[in-house]
Design a protein that fits this description.
- The longest helix has 23 residues, at about 140-160.
- The protein has 3 domains: about 5-35 and about 205-260 and about 335-385, Rossmann fold; about 85-180, no CATH class; about 265-320, no CATH class.
- It is built from 12 helices and 22 strands.
- Helix 1 (about 10-25) packs parallel to helix 12 and helix 3 runs antiparallel to helix 4 (about 110-120).
- About 35% of the residues are buried.
- It has helices at about 10-25, 65-70, 100-105, 110-120, 130-135, 140-160, 170-175, 200-205, 250-255, 300, 335-350, 370-385; strands at about 5-10, 30, 45, 50-55, 60, 75-80, 85-90, 90-95, 125-130, 175-180, 190-195, 210-215, 225, 230-235, 240, 245, 265-275, 285, 295, 310-320, 330, 355.
- Strand 7 (about 85-90) and strand 8 form a beta hairpin.
- The chain is an alpha+beta fold.
- Bound molecules: flavin-adenine dinucleotide (FAD).
- Flavin-adenine dinucleotide binds next to helix 1 and helix 12.
Length: about 375
C-alpha cells in the first residue's frame, strides 16, 4: 500500500491526526464506514432548510488555547455562550442550578436563607458539586443538596443511564454543579464559540490536502487484518509497516471475542415544525417529565434564519445493542467490570508497535470535542518521529 499512515474513522480524532501527518509530508489514507466525514459532529440540511446535527447537538467550548488556535486554521467562529433551562415543577429554570433557579423554585424567605448559607460556607467559590452539598454537615445545605439531586439529577440520570443511581460513577455525579451566583452559562470555559459555517466546513478543510486520500463507506474490516500471533497488521492482505491509527470500537475490531463493551445509545427523533421558534432557548432539559431527556432547537445554535420553519430534536436514551446496525454507541458505561474488559482487549494489541488508539470509541471514554483534539495533537507529537 502506497501510504505511510492509515487512519480509521473521520471524526475529530481521525481527522486531526490525518491533517497533522499530511502536513508533516506523510501520505495518509483515511477511511470511514459512514457515507460522510465529520464523525458525530456531522451536520445535514432538513427538507425545510434547517441545518441540524445529525448525531445530537454539539457545542464547542474549551480552556485549551492550543485547540482553539488549531481549529481557527479551518474555520471562522462566532461567539456563542450556551444556556440551558430545565422544566422543573412546571417552571423553566436555569441549568446548572443557580441562584435564579433557587429564587424561581423556593419562596423568598427560604431562598434567601439557602443563598446566605451557601455564600457563607463556600466563600470564594464559583460553584460547588452536588456531592459536596449532599455530604454537608449543615442541615439547610444538605436538604438543599437533596432537593437539587432529586429534581435535577436522579431522574435525568436514571433515564440517561438506566442503572440504579448508586451504580453511577462518581465522576458523572461530580459533573453536576450548583452555581454560587447568577452566572447562567452552561459552560464556564474561556473559549465558547460555534463554527461560522458549521462543522462540516472544518472537516472538509482539515482533509483538503494532496497527501490525504479519503475512502467513505469503507469498514476497517474490509481493509485491516490484525495478526496477533505474528504481531503485525495486514492492510488489503499485505503486511503494513506504516502507522495505523484506529478511532473505532475495539471490541468490534477484535470480533467481540471477549464480549461486547457496553454503551448507552440514543433514539434521536427530529421534528420539523411550521413555526418560527418552538421553545425559548436552544436546549430545554426534562429531568422529571417525559421519556426524553432534552429538546434541542437547532436554529438557536446556528443563528440560521428560516422563516416560519424550525426543527427540534428529542433525545430518548436507549440500551445499545451491538447487533443492531441502527444503533450508535454514544456513551461508554464506566465501571470496573467494563474497564477490565476494555483493558483485556487492549492487552491483545500490546505487541503491535505500529498500531495506535485514539478517540472516544477506541479509548472507551467520554471525551468532549476539545479534549479529543488535544489528545490527537499530543499523540501526533509523541509518534511523528517514530520509525
Ligand atoms: C449526544 C452527544 C452530544 C455531545 N455533545 C458535545 C458537545 O456539545 N460538546 C463537545 O465538546 N462534545 C460533545 N460530545 C462529544 C463528541 O461527540 C466527541 O468528543 C467526539 O465525537 C469524539 O470524536 P471521535 O473522533 O473520537 O469520535 P466520532 O466522532 O464518533 O468518530 C469516529 C468515527 O469512526 C468511524 N468508525 C467507527 N468504526 C469504524 C470502522 N470499523 N471502520 C471505519 N470507520 C469506523 C465512525 O463512523 C465515526 O465517523 C457529545 C457526544 C454525544 C454522544
Amino acid at each position: 500500500m502506497n501510504y505511510d499512515v492509515l487512519v480509521v474513522g473521520a471524526g475529530f480524532a481521525g481527522c486531526t491526526l490525518a491533517q497533522k501527518f499530511a502536513e508533516f509530508g506523510k501520505k495518509v489514507l483515511i477511511i470511514d464506514k459512514r457515507a460522510h466525514i465529520g464523525g458525530n459532529m456531522y451536520e445535514e440540511k432538513r427538507a425545510n432548510n434547517v441545518n441540524v446535527h445529525k448525531y445530537g447537538p454539539h457545542i464547542f467550548h474549551t480552556n485549551y488555547e492550543e485547540v482553539f488556535n488549531y481549529l481557527k486554521k479551518f474555520t471562522g467562529f462566532y461567539f456563542y455562550e450556551h444556556r440551558v433551562i430545565g422544566y422543573i415543577d412546571g417552571k423553566y429554570v436555569p441549568i446548572p442550578f443557580n441562584f435564579k433557579s433557587l429564587e424561581l423554585l423556593f419562596e423568598e424567605k427560604k431562598s434567601l436563607e439557602i443563598k446566605n448559607k451557601l455564600l457563607n460556607v463556600y466563600k470564594n467559590m464559583d460553584k460547588v458539586s452536588i456531592l459536596e452539598l449532599l455530604n454537608s454537615d449543615d442541615e439547610v445545605i444538605k436538604k438543599f443538596g437533596e432537593y437539587v439531586y432529586d429534581k435535577v439529577f436522579v431522574h435525568y440520570t436514571a433515564k440517561q443511564w438506566n442503572i440504579p443511581i448508586e451504580e453511577v460513577d462518581k465522576s458523572v455525579i461530580n459533573r453536576v454543579p450548583v452555581i454560587l451566583g447568577y452566572d447562567d452559562r452552561y459552560f464556564q470555559d474561556k473559549y465558547q464559540f460555534m463554527p461560522k459555517n458549521g462543522y462540516n466546513e472544518i472537516f472538509n478543510n482539515m482533509l483538503n490536502n494532496k497527501n490525504i486520500t479519503i475512502k467513505l463507506n469503507t469498514d476497517s474490516k474490509e481493509v485491516i487484518n490484525i495478526d496477533i500471533e505474528k504481531k503485525n497488521i495486514l492492510v488489503y492482505g499485505e503486511k503494513f509497516d506504516g502507522k495505523v491509527i484506529y478511532t473505532g470500537p475495539l471490541d468490534e475490531l477484535l470480533n467481540y471475542k471477549y464480549g461486547p463493551l457496553p454503551y448507552r445509545s440514543l433514539n434521536l427523533v427530529f421534528e420539523d415544525r411550521l413555526e418560527n421558534y418552538y421553545q425559548p432557548m436552544s436546549v430545554v432539559n426534562y429531568p422529571n417529565d417525559n421519556k426524553f431527556t432534552r429538546i434541542t432547537e437547532f436554529k438557536y445554535l446556528s443563528n440560521q434564519i428560516v422563516k416560519n420553519n424550525t426543527t427540534i430534536l428529542k433525545e430518548y436514551p436507549l440500551t445499545y445493542d451491538y447487533m443492531n446496525k441502527e444503533h450508535v454507541p454514544y456513551y461508554a458505561i464506566f465501571n470496573e467490570r467494563n474497564l477490565n474488559l476494555y483493558n483485556k482487549y487492549c492487552y491483545c494489541l500490546k505487541d503491535i508497535s505500529n498500531f495506535y488508539l485514539c478517540g472516544r470509541l477506541a479509548e472507551y471514554k467520554y471525551y468532549n470535542m476539545d479534549a479529543v483534539i488535544k489528545r490527537a495533537l499530543d499523540l501526533f507529537e509523541e509518534i511523528k518521529g517514530e520509525k
